[in-house]
Amino acid sequence: MQELNNQRERDTNTNTIPERKKYIAIRSSIILVGLFGIVLNSIFGYALPSTNVECIVDYTWNFTTSINNYFNDNTESRNLLLIFSNLIIDIILICLGILWILKGTSFRVFIALGSFYIFKFFIQLTFQESIPHDYLWLNPGFPSLFVSYLPSHAFFYSVPTGFLTIAICEFWKTDRKYFSYLTICVLFLDIFNRNVLRANYIIDLLSAVIIAHFIFILSDEFCNKYLDNDWITFKQEDGEIMNNLENIYLKDYTKREENNSDY
Description:
The chain is mainly α. The chain has one domain. Helix content is 72%, strand content 0%. It is elongated, with a radius of gyration of 25 Å. It starts with a helix and ends with a helix.
């Protein structure tokens, strides 16, 4: 039986390693291309509009005026808050990408993130909001991969807030509940920060959550129907190979045992 298990392991590794390398290379390329574009935009703002807009009133800001004044007077506290919260966002999204590359069983999260970002780009071409006078979303002196500190009128809707929502949905869908709970906490922190620092209006934040969740549902349905069935995922591939090898070796082992018993 030990010989059976050893042979099965050798054959499995021989068949799966080349396929794993191929799919990891493809998925890594997708992640790197998307990450490169997002980082460039967060640094240079090439996809952000530069026109001047003066309009809109957010009455929820009346409840956070004192907090906004505090962070206006305490720059160090504001910088620490921005660095801490946005660093966690970067870590979560990086972990999401790594888990998708290594153990992803669907392309829904990539389709959802890409669609959400593209939809945001077209919206900002037709709808922009004014930068408030108490805007405090300023560079804290520490870079972020996914969060831009450049001032812009493209408030609607908040991309990091939507990305966190999609991450929550993906973690929950893949039964990583603890990651989901952690990301939910970070989502509320992000909404709080953006509200009190006037980085987004309340409509931008609520819309980001709703639209991101809806896009994730559509992406999941699309991948289940059209895309995922055409790709052999790691889990399916390993399961099929292991089942086939197990059936072959069990039959061979049983046959040899029967032959030995005849003697």
